[in-house]
Amino acid sequence: MEQTAKKGILLMNLGSPDSTEVKDVRRYLNEFLMDERVIDMPYLKRLLLVKGLITPFRAPKSAEAYRTIWTKEGSPLIVLTQQLQEALQQQVDVPVEIAMRYGNPTVQHGFDALMKKVPGLEEVIAVPLYPHYAMSSYETAVEYAKEIHQKQEYPFKLEFIKPYYNEPNYIEALAENIKPYLQQEYDHILFSYHGIPERHLVKTDPTGSHCMMNGNCCSTSSAAHATCYRHQCFTTTNLVTDKLGITKDKFSVSFQSRLGRDPWLKPYTDFRLTDMPKEGIKKLLILCPAFVSDCLETLEEIEERGKETFMEAGGETYKMIPCLNTHPLWVKTIADWTKAIVAGNKEMVLVK
Ligand SMILES: C=CC1=C(C)c2cc3[nH]c(cc4nc(cc5[nH]c(cc1n2)c(C)c5CCC(=O)O)C(CCC(=O)O)=C4C)c(C)c3C=C
Ligand SMILES: [Fe+2]
Ligand SMILES: [Fe+2]
C-alpha cells in the first residue's frame, strides 16, 4: 500500500476472553472488573470483591454462556470487529488495526502493528466502538489508550473520534439497519441499552448538579449531556425513531446487563420483558444500540435468554435486530469520519 499520509486507524472494542475455558474467562473478568472505572471502589475493597466474590462464582457461569455463542473463528465480538476492520480497510488508504480494552489484541499490539505498517507514523485516529459516553466504556477505552501511548513513549499523535450518539450519519446507518425489520408485524420496539450504576452518572457529571437530580434531567438542556450516558441513550432513540417515523406509543427504552445490588439505570430490560406481554405487547422487536458489534450481551442475554423470558411471560413473537456490525452505511460512516480527519478536518475529534 502506498502511504500518502503517515496515519493509521485503530478500532477499539471492549474485548472477550481468549477461549471459553473457565481459566481464560476468569483472567478476562479479573482484568475487566478490576478496572476502577467499571467497579469504582478503593483498590483493596475492589480486589476483595472481584477476586474473592464476583469472579469465582461468575467465571464458570460466564464460560457456559460464552460457549453458547462462540464460533469456530472465536468470540463474535472479536470476529465482528475484525470483519469491520477488513470492510473499512477496503474504503480507506491508511492502515486499520483493532485493539481491545481487555484481553487480546491489546492496545499496545495495535499501536505496534500500525508502527510496523507505517514507517514514521505521525498520527493514530482511535475509533472507540461505543456511540455513547460512559466511564465504564468510552472513557476507560480513551484513558487506557492514552496511558499506553504515554508510558511506551510512542512518537505519534493520538486522537479519538468523539461519542457519536447524535451524529446524523450514525443515526442514518442505525435507521437503515432497523428498516428491514419494520416490515414484519410488531406491537413495540424495545431499545435495550447496556446499563450502568446510577452513581456513575453522578460521577461523570461535570456540573455536579444535573444527572439523576430529577426524572427529567436528561431532557432539560445541560452541559452535563456531553458525558451523560442516559441523555445520550434517549437522544439516539429519539433521533432514530423520528427518522423512521415510529410514533412514541410504539417504542421505549430499557437498560440491561446489571451486576450487583446497587441501583442501575431503570427500567431494567429483564423486568420489562416479563411485564410487556401482560400489558398487551405480544410481538416484540428489540435492539441494543449501545453495542456496535454483536457480543455476549446481545446474542446470549437478549437473543437467547431475553426471548425465553418474553415468551414464557406470554409473548408471541420476539426478534432481535442485530447491531450495526459491518452494515455498509456504518462502514462508510467510519470511513468518512476518518478520511475527514486525515484531511485535516477535526469536527469528529474528541476535544478534552
Ligand atoms: C456500552 C458498553 C458497555 C458498558 C457501559 C458496560 C458497562 C459495564 N459492564 C459491566 C460488567 C460486564 N459486562 C460484560 C460484558 C460486556 N459488556 C460490554 C459493554 C459494556 N459494558 C460488552 C460489549 C460485553 C460483551 C463482551 C463479549 O465478550 O462479548 C461482562 C462479562 C460477561 C459476563 O460475565 O456477563 C461483565 C461482567 C459492568 C459492571 C459495567 C459498568 C459498571
Ligand atoms: Fe442527564
Ligand atoms: Fe458490560
State the main characteristics.
352 residues; alpha/beta; Rossmann fold; 2 domains; 11 helices; binds ligand L6N33NVT; binds fe (ii) ion
Description:
By secondary structure, the chain is α/β, with parallel strands linked by helices. The protein folds into two domains: 7-165 and 328-342, Rossmann fold, CATH 3.40.50.1400; 168-320, Rossmann fold (3-Layer(aba) Sandwich), CATH 3.40.50. The protein has helices spanning 22-33, 43-69, 76-89, 107-117, 135-151, 168-178, 198-203, 229-244, 269-275, 296-312, 328-342, and strands at residues 7-13, 96-100, 123-128, 157-160, 188-194, 251-256, 283-287, 317-320. Strands 2-1-3-4 form a four-stranded parallel beta sheet, sandwiched between helices. A four-stranded parallel beta sheet has the order 6-5-7-8, with helices on both faces. Helix 5 links the parallel strand 3 (123-128) and strand 4. Helix 6 (168-178) packs across helix 8, helix 6 packs antiparallel against helix 11 and helix 9 packs parallel to helix 10. The longest helix is centred in the first third of the chain and has 27 residues, at 43-69. It is globular. The model has no long low-confidence stretch (mean pLDDT 96). One fe (ii) ion binds at residues 194, 257. Catalyzes the ferrous insertion into protoporphyrin IX. Belongs to the ferrochelatase family.
